[in-house]
Amino acid sequence: MRWLLLAFLIVPALEIGVFIWAGGVIGPWWVVGLILLTGIVGVTLAKQQGVETWHRAQKSMNYGQVPAEEILDGICIFVGGVFLFTPGFITDIVGFILVLPGTRGIFKGFLQKLIKRLIDKDIIIYRR
Question: Transmembrane residues, as ranges (predicted)?
Answer without folding.
Answer: 27-46
